[in-house]
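Troubleshooting log. The previous structure file for this entry was overwritten by mistake, so regenerating from the original sequence record. Sequence copied from the archived sheet and checked twice against the printout by T.R.
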Amino acid sequence: MFYCALFSFSGIHGILSMVIDMDIDKALIGKRIKHRRDIAGLSQEQLAEQLNLSKNHISSMECGKSLPTTRCIIALCNILGGTPDYYLLGEIVPETDTVTALVQRLSPYEQKKLCHLLNAYLEDID
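Regenerated output below.
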């Protein structure tokens, strides 16, 4: 998955290491999920069906009672848009959504090639 590759591009080991080293605000993560779900016009039931989860689990995440798994966050990005850093940290910029949308248009093979190119580029500038 491309998001996993994106994490390795960062010089500080990516967003996951940042999240591990900080206090996670489950309530804010839940509000961000609800906000993106509302923008997408989906009910909790519809989102639960797409994520293969129960409506109660979606409700629990949105209320800040439970955290989404990494796999769930990636699926939320694919369904609702945004990036893992948006859901976890609240940071999102239009350029990130644009890049994500472009990459999602690529086949898995093309995404893998893009990751290799980006890794080579980043190694070259270090």
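The chain is about 75% helix and 0% strand. Archived copy saved in two places this time.
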